[in-house]
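TASK: fixed-backbone design
INPUT:
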């Protein structure tokens, strides 16, 4: 679960800064702006705080939505956008499985 979250955090600079055109935008500022919100619940996630895990899931839903919109509207960036869609889905299924094991 934390691995999917960290993969989303790492994916932002890769997609927005390091991937060549037309797959990425080549903007370091965009990569930084996309990565900063993901740092907010990170400390609590490493401590295992349930509240941080919930907030991380809610935050990832924004990235899921952005990935869907980018895949829908920008054909050259469809593949990187689908990676951004898949990572939050993996996080949510791992979170659900973790909660089922706790019960």
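OUTPUT:
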């Amino acid at each position: 679960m934390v691995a999917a979250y960290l993969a989303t955090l790492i994916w932002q600079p890769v997609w927005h800064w390091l991937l060549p055109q037309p797959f990425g935008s080549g903007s370091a500022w965009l990569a930084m702006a996309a990565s900063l919100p993901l740092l907010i619940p990170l400390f609590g996630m490493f401590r295992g705080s349930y509240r941080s895990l919930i907030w991380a899931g809610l935050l990832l839903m924004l990235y899921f939505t952005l990935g869907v919109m980018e895949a829908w509207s920008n054909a050259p960036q469809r593949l990187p956008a689908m990676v951004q869609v898949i990572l939050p889905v993996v996080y949510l299924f791992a979170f659900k499985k973790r909660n089922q094991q706790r019960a």
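COMMENT: The chain has a mean pLDDT of 91.
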